[in-house]
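Case study.
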Amino acid sequence: MFRTQYDSDISIYSPEGRLYQIEYAMQAVAQGSTALGLKSKTHAVVVTLMRSSDELSSHQRKIFKVDGHMGIAISGLTADARVLLKFMRNETLHHKFVYGSDLPTGEVVSSLAMKSQRNTQRWGRRPYGVGLLVIGYDGDKTHLYQTSPSGNCFSYYAQAIGSRSQSARTYLEKNFKAFPELGLEELVLHGVKALKESSGKETLTKLNVGIAVVGKEQKFEILKPNKVQTYLDQILQTEGEIEIENENENEKDEAAETLELKLD
Amino acid sequence: METYLGEKQQARQWSPYINNGGSCLAVAGDDFAVIASDTRMSLGYSIKTRYSTKYLKITEKCSIVSSGMQADIFTLHKVLKSRAQIYEQKHGKPMSTDAVAKLVSRLLYYRRFFPYYTFNIVAGVDEDGVGCVFSYDAIGTLERVKYSASGSGSSLIEPVLDNQVALKNRNDIKKEEFKLTKEYAIDLVKDAITSAGERDIYTGDFVEISVIDLNGTHEDKFELRFD
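After joint prediction, the assembly is written out as follows.
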């Protein structure tokens, strides 16, 4: 009710102690299509649902390589993500050049958090409207971090962001205890199954599902569509479902529905 | 200080450059390239280490070997490796061998007035799958050739390659009858650098040899004399 009075600038607090501009920025992340990440002791995986605005356009890439041992999945404003990606690539390359080793994932995420926070407290700047899921393997450990426009970053066993991510998160919450001991194949399967929970009526195909892996003796790699298809086939085999045709109108309706639910 | 003859005598000037010795060579075939370098690092008449690499794999289709001053070789290779990664991130694909060759030339000329004391050879397969070798001087003069040798043993190796690859000064074989096969090139490169190791004191210890073709790079190592 009082929101509209206190949301016109990033520098204005609400009486409840909230910064609405930052929350609106996080809303931009929630509008992006689903991206989720999960990790075991040896591997970390991100799985994303790539949207295409219409039949004529290509699917929007959501997974990017940062360095041989690290990569990100994004949700939200892709243009902002590109800026953060450039920053991360620069940091990791610089560290490799100067110290000859891989920059630990946690360190680059911390730098990213600092960078994001600066945009919440500076005149004329706006928060980055993108959330990242960063996966990496360094120091013999797997890492999964989430960064948000607020500048907060947390480490996760598994996490999902973007639209309809709650369904994926529920699946991950049910199954995450088993993840640490799993092999790569099973881990990816869980990721795809979780994505299926939040895909709604949209059919998962090798063109709109993105998967990337990193881990012990596994450099960060975005899987080719044919490899993605093998995982999708395994899901279909176990579930034995009949696929329904993708309808754009339904997807738009659902997006509008989500918007209405979020506004209070 | 003037002597009785009237010439000036100058105190020895400090030089930022030293030569750590070693030999490098590369040979290109129709659809492959072979590149090799020894690993001995010397200073004066001493051996500093028996294994200091002079070889860098830049992409699956292109590698570089450098002789000269180890510090400059190390730095040049570091810079090259970073630049190759930046290119791949920007363009979404690895650098072609021609692009690498041009980049090396530019990196060297960038230091025209305080050069890298490095004598480089870049080898690989080009966009058409044809083997290529590029040789340089210290400031980046670029030339595409069929074979090249650099370093302390280059004057021992180059004539052998002239004779065996370009068939110069041969009366026993015609150019049309000769086919440079991969096995022939590998044996030739091995023999050439081994022979250099026999006579050149700065060449020896180990050799890193690498064969590049459209399937990728196959790296190998073998021993030379330790004396």
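Observations recorded in class. The radius of gyration of chain A is 19 Å. Residues 78-99 of chain A form the longest helix (22 residues). We will return to this complex in the next lecture.
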